[in-house]
Here is the input.
Amino acid sequence: MLYLWPAFQTIMKKIHIALLILGIAGIVGMSFFVKDLTTQETFSSAKEKAGKYVVVKTKLDLSKPIEYDAVKNPNQTVFYAVDAEGNQSKVVYSEAKIVDMERSEGLDLNGYMRDGYFECNKIQAKCPSKYKDESGKAKQNLPGATSTQY
Here is the structure.
């Protein structure tokens, strides 16, 4: 049994080296996603963190127009949004206007707070629920249905 010890030590060294390389690769790989692992902020807290990448949960301010000109600058959309605290801010989005932006229930804005506006490079729109009034429509379509049990 003792004659196997040097071979066992060699194998263990190779396994340790492989695990060390995998660990380093995992840390490097995770560093690419750190920017996406941000907490949700408001416009006021984003101002305090000016220059840092943040995500602000907002709703589109429909009282102000959305500025988008596909001919002059197709990669810029300017609009106003209101956060959870009721703070309003101008948002400059560096992409084309999102389809049905006005119908969205909410917008998660990813970007940086600048001098007087929010510079956005990614938007996640919360679509209106298609199931909001499904029970009312179902009752209209099935007049004899009295129970919702399955």
